[in-house]
Amino acid sequence: MWKDILRDQLEVDEPVFWSCVQEGVQPPRGTPEIPARALPVALVSLLVSHVGLDEAEVAAMSKDEAIARLQRYWTEDTRTQTAKQVPGPPRRRDHNRALSHSGVPSGHPRMTETILVTGGTGVLGREAARRLLGPDREIRVLSRRDAPAGTPYAWRTGDLRTGEGIDAAVAGADVIVHCATTLGSKDVTATNTLIEAARRAGTPHLVYISIVGVDRIPFPYYRAKLAAEEAVIASGLPWTILRATQFHDLLRLLVDVQRRLPVLFRPAGFRFQPVDAGEVAQRLADLSLGEPAGRAPDFGGPEVRDFTDLARTRLRAANRRRPMIPVPVPGASGRGYRAGHHLTPNATGTITFEQYLAARGD
Ligand SMILES: NC(=O)c1ccc[n+]([C@@H]2O[C@H](COP(=O)([O-])OP(=O)(O)OC[C@H]3O[C@@H](n4cnc5c(N)ncnc54)[C@H](OP(=O)(O)O)[C@@H]3O)[C@@H](O)[C@H]2O)c1
């Protein structure tokens, strides 16, 4: 189990992990690159979220004590570890499971599970919220706007940048699926605001959507996503983070925003692995109904394709023609994209860009 946690959450093998934490954070030559900040955060996170220690207790430990504590825990019986895996008081959905498996006579009222979806009006969030609707569940959607007429959701109006309405939105939530984004550096403040409100309200399972490569491409938005991930990991709440590749919608948008231009500018040497937002939403919904999973395996689209190829596909579907002009993207971010750090071998999605465009019919 610990090997799985290290492999899935830290993307590192056990011997590499121990040599890194004991001798500093730089991985030995020839091993996969590990983000410098990942190990200390991961140590604290593993001790809080898996071993079940208080944050204050972990903060008072030396690094050697922390490592020794984790090693001791690792060698314990797996059944004991599983029992201790989720910290804090039992959540309401645990209670639901207990009721449904404990021989309570049929007709006994089940408690309602409350799930808040931030960004539930966005491309991903609205797909996730729709998939979560079901009996014995209250699905809340957080938006800065007022509820549309006839919404099937328990609507909450609030703003993660100002904090307005957030306490009321998270009160009583068992799970928070955090899909809201400011599309910029304010994502860090927004996520911290959400975490603080969630901690005041209890210990909800916090599920966060991130992007493949945020730790390897220093694009400003990715830096903010990485900092938000770190805030989630250090929150002391049970957590799950899913990283996905770019949605088909984004690739279509990159072409469509240029439709009034006589040419189409394309980033030279960029490949993408676009994925269907609905498929990512389904995975996010499944994760939010399960136990906190830490870093879930990355979710990528079925094909890695050159941007030129994807742009041609979009132009063809829209009956347009444009000469394409390559634009070199300078700097470390450009190099990161050209190196494919935003791609994943986990080609989990099945819907191709062509199928997505055909389903939209535009
Ligand atoms: N797009 C991609 O290719 C891609 C790929 C991988 C991961 N992701 C991640 O997936 C998440 C969702 O992306 P998306 O493309 O679905 O986003 P989106 O369509 O731009 O939606 C953004 C959402 O955030 C909400 N929001 C913005 N500012 C807010 C604020 N101050 N307070 C409360 N809510 C606020 C908006 O709600 P209202 O306008 O209703 O208030 C909206 O629902 C993001 O975290 C993104 O990084 C995206």
UniProtKB/TrEMBL annotation:
Q: Where is this region: Disordered?
A: 78-112
Q: Know the name of this protein?
A: Uncharacterized protein YbjT (DUF2867 family)
What residues does the NAD(P)-binding domain cover?
119-249
Pfam families the UniProt entry points to: NAD_binding_10
Q: What is the lineage of its organism?
A: Bacteria, Bacillati, Actinomycetota, Actinomycetes, Pseudonocardiales
The species this protein belongs to is: Amycolatopsis endophytica
Q: Which InterPro entries match?
A: ComplexI_NDUFA9_subunit (IPR051207), NAD(P)-bd_dom (IPR016040), NAD(P)-bd_dom_sf (IPR036291)
GO molecular function annotations of the record: protein-containing complex binding
